[in-house]
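Task: sequence design from structure.
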């Protein structure tokens, strides 16, 4: 089982008698239903509903939690959580003595530490919180985990969506359990709830399939129209941001999708349930044919 030290992740610890109550009212996931050892996927949003930072969130103990967060977002997240705290009895500190590793694939020896299931998708494996010195002794290649998550179509903030300019739906957080729509208020909740119940997101992250190697950042076109952009890539597949309406028009009109000169196919990830109109039309025609 590969155990990969995720050098681009850091941990922030939240402790205090009001930690659970405070965090439940600020971030997108449900904190108050968590027991020790549980994990959630969530985010802190702007009041306008855009992602400041996403993170994996672990219940370390009674009123003790860990944020598994991109290193590039840690200082800003720490600052904003402290700003929202006001008089709540909760303290935030960077856990500089700890690190995060990804555990996935075939069975093998796993270093001692706290294991948490990856809450986004079981196939991703587990996250291991362990001493920094033990993590630094691991010899696995971080590229192994990148290939693993890209092959599963799991987005990553930075390569696949821009912090501060992306709604949770556009990053597929609603599909991966990153937003609890029943928990009540949190920062940005009104905008996210309205998008969930009253409209269809125009942009989505989807899987892109290709036979010829593609460069990250390659534009996807249908004729003279831009449909999206290739983001993270691995062997023969990747993640792309796509205008679903334009992709649907292209599929309906029989216009090929190209990334440069390379034909590509777009596919909804297996774990996603959002609608891609051309897939729905194929299903409707199939049902009509079988029923005739």
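Answer:
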């Amino acid at each position: 089982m590969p155990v990969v030290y995720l050098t681009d992740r850091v941990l922030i610890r939240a402790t205090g008698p009001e930690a659970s109550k405070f965090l439940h009212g600020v971030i997108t996931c449900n904190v108050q239903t968590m027991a020790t050892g549980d994990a959630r996927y969530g985010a802190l949003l702007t009041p306008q509903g855009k992602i400041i930072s996403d993170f994996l969130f672990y219940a370390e103990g009674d009123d003790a939690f860990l944020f598994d967060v991109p290193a590039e977002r840690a200082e800003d997240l720490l600052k904003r959580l402290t700003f929202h705290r006001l008089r709540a009895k909760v303290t935030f500190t960077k856990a500089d003595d700890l690190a995060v590793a990804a555990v996935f694939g075939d069975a093998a020896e796993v270093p001692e530490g706290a294991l948490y299931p990856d809450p986004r998708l079981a196939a991703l494996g587990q996250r291991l919180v362990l001493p920094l010195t033990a993590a630094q002794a691991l010899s696995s290649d971080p590229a192994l985990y990148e290939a693993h998550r890209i092959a599963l179509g799991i987005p990553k903030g930075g390569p696949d969506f821009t912090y501060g300019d992306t709604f949770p739906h556009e990053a597929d957080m609603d599909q991966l359990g990153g937003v609890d729509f029943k928990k009540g208020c949190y920062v940005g909740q009104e905008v996210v709830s309205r998008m969930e119940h009253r409209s269809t997101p125009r942009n989505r992250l989807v899987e892109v399939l290709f036979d010829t190697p593609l460069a990250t950042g390659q534009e996807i076109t249908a004729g003279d129209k831009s449909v999206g952009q290739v983001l993270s890539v691995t062997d023969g597949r990747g993640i792309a941001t796509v205008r679903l309406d334009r992709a649907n028009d292209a599929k309906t009109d029989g216009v090929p999708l190209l990334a440069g000169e390379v034909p590509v196919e777009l596919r909804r990830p297996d774990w996603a349930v959002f609608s891609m109109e051309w897939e729905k039309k194929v299903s409707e025609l199939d049902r009509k044919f079988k029923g005739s």
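The chain has two domains: 3-171, 202-291.
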